[in-house]
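Archive entry. Fields below.
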Amino acid sequence: MKKLWKIFNGGLVFENPLLVLMIGLCSSMAVTSTVSNGIGMGLSMTFVLLFSEIFVSAFRKIIPSSVRMPVFLIIIGGFTTIVDLVLKAYFPALSKSMGVFIPLIVVNCIIMGRVEAFSYKQSVLASIFDSFGMGLGYTWVLVGMSAFREVLGNGTFLGIQVMPQSYQPILFFILPPGGFLIFGLFIAFNIWNKNRLTRKAEAKENA
Amino acid sequence: MDLMKIFIVSMLINNIILMRFIALCSYIGMTNDVGQSIGMGIAVTFVTVLATAATWPLYHFILAPLRLEFLEIIIFILVVASLVQLVEFYLKKNVPGLYAAMGIYLPLITTNCAISAVVFENISLNYNFIQSIVYAIGVSLGYLLAMVLLAGVRERMETSPVPKFLRGTPILFISTSLIGIAFMGFAGLIK
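PREDICTED_STRUCTURE:
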């Protein structure tokens, strides 16, 4: 159980896909100009990751390693299509504003990377924990970034006005350079947090 | 005039890295020194133009008449990957000098998003052949420019006192943000 918790925790901080592994960056900065996009993208990604990892891990003994890439792509592509169609049917506005980035989940390095590096070698249970860790790790960064960008750049949160009327929105944060800046600060925060946790663990061991 | 506009918009105003967040992996990974970033930039320019020259006729003369547009993604990815292989073989055999300079970057290019983005956009933007080539050159020169700029900044940064908590990747993104602000100034170039 402790091992599983460690796998889950790894995705959130120590091996956070965006802040530490630096994969899947393109979509993360492009969709985070509003909070609803950030949440939508994070959850869609977690869903696809969860089911792809479960399926790959369940069939890992049957998938020959020479053709594993195309097989992975087909599995991931299938779940991405499900997400795409569900969003189109039930959340048309969200689906429209995220646009091309939903189909692009297929080639998102996070999913390919985790499926290849983790679930192809590990049990189903471990894969489930890994996908939740990675998926939530991705989601919290997206939601955090988009909260900063939307509140500062537009004065709203989830479309509701939260800043006083007199607040002049700083347009910079919605524009691409603002995304880079916020992302840089998030990495800095994660490094600080990681060092703090490591120190704490060491202190505990010494005591 | 129209071509000039496509060129400037794709290279400066809609810079593929700084304004559209495409091809960030190689942007962070390949900019350790200026020489490396120039090599990567030139290799990408070369392959993007070749890939455009190959995929545009393929789409308009083969896929579209046969109503096979839905195969676009699979076919284009195959074309780009095999093109990179061919270029590598050709350079190795016939132009060893250029191969030595560019060779190590070629395999990395197969998965470069900048190239895939250009070949798909040429179709979705409905450009004719000349416009597509100009667009490909513009986007990839914009890529080269952004790579070289960041590599220059990184070289200077090695000897600068960066605050401890920003060392490593955070400062890279913050520098990128500043370069991006400078690029936003180009938006006034075209009305």
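CURATOR_NOTE: Residues 34-63 of chain B form the longest helix (30 residues).
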